[in-house]
């Protein structure tokens, strides 16, 4: 098929512009992930925030992370569930925090379609600073083979408009009880199991 010179030039310019924008967006996302990693490391170095036990706290320098891979940053459709009851979520102790299923996140990853519940805390939703906070716990095939055996968490926020929800598995972190058994951590519900490997986000080592 023959394209006039002006048309061909317009197509080339459009493709180049799209590539530049995509590269810029990717660079911004990479910067955000690296900033998140640095903040997590700093929190664990801070005695007022760190869950680390005294011996581990003294030697802690940084968390081990998988290499960043933006393939695992997915755009999900969040379908809100109206009227879902609050329930007591099981934890690693006798504590039973109250959550409800806020919605179902639908997305495709590694060629598989997932419909994963996203939770809202009854306690946190009453606090202004956490009113839009959503809890996304998950397990995958890396658990016990590079990541914490009981799964990882991702912090999300209620979309300000529409149904689009970005889930960045590069920002998956471990429960506090991965480092200190004195903490009480929500156990990942069976519905949040993903039958693929997700080799991004935080790794896990028995000793730090």
Summarize the structure.
The protein is 23% helix and 24% strand.
Summarize the SSE layout with pairings.
Blueprint (H helix, E strand, L loop, with lengths): L4 H41 L8 H6 L13 E8 L6 E2 L9 E12 L2 E10 L11 E6 L13 E6 L6 E5 L40
Antiparallel strand pairs: 1-3, 1-7, 2-3, 3-4, 5-6
How would you characterize this protein structure?
- With 208 residues, the protein is an alpha+beta fold.
- It has a domain at 64-192.
- It has helices at 5-45, 54-59; strands spanning 73-80, 87-88, 98-109, 112-121, 133-138, 152-157, 164-168.
- The strands form two sheets. Strands 1, 2, 3, 4 and 7 form a five-stranded antiparallel beta sheet that branches. A two-stranded antiparallel sheet has the order 5-6.
- The termini are far apart.
- Residues 10-22 have low confidence and may be disordered.
Structural class: alpha+beta
How many individual helices?
2
List how many beta strands DSSP finds: 7
Output mean pLDDT: 89
Q: What about the largest sheet?
A: 5 strands, antiparallel
Strand content: 15-25%
Radius of gyration: 20 Å
> What letter string, H or E per element, gives the SSE order?
HHEEEEEEE
Q: What attributes does this structure have?
A:
24% strand; 23% helix; single chain
